[in-house]
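Notes from the 1:1 (GR / supervisor)

We went over the backlog. Supervisor wanted to see one worked example end to end before approving the batch request, so GR pasted a single chain during the call. The sequence is below; no edits were made to it. Supervisor asked that the structure be written out right there so they could see what the output format looks like.
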Amino acid sequence: KEGDWISLNGSNGDVYDGQVPTTDPELDGDFAAIMNLAAKYTKTLVRTNADTPRDARQARSFGAQGIGLCRTEHMFFEGDRIKAVREMILASDLEGRRSALAKLLPMQRGDFEGIFEAMAKEFGFRYVASTLRESFSATHNGWKAMIYDGKEFYESKRYDINPIIDRVGGGDSFSGGLIYGLLNKATQGEALEFAVAASALKQTINGDFNLASVEEVEALAGGSANGRVQR
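Structure output shown during the call:
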């Protein structure tokens, strides 16, 4: 009846009455032997798709060298989180939608912080940073980033890039801008703001390279809070 536990064996399909104790999967047997052999000779580093702190830790235990993609919509599949998503979708007005989103934001931010902490701990990074892209269409995106130095998190201001001319090089511009910022700015927050502005500006420039000057990036980073980027 409703509320009763059943357990499933994913390997052979057996169904058991009640809640059977479980353990986290581990690399062992033939699979572990193959993976260890591959790790010994590989020249390619594998990054994982990880959407929660638990996913990040699990992927690292399986040998992933980092996170290549984090899809934030996957953070909201369970428990009260999916309820808040449904509340947002079914809201009858803007106020109701905003109320539901206000419940989701701290969950999302908490998961990002957990992922960053896991990466910093596993790899010994001094800084962990990531861009956050909102996709409204192929030519209209929201754009910001987060950074963690092992003690504090900082979230940049948000840019509205419309239209996007060329996304190619946006990630490289962020990385290059962050390196420049960390070498030349007083705080991680200032460094991140420079990097986000540089990468936002690049996406309004055709081609693979960010042809904007430091002065242009500084002007955008220190500009109006609405963050609208156009050229």
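Supervisor's comment: The longest helix spans residues 94-123.
Batch request approved.
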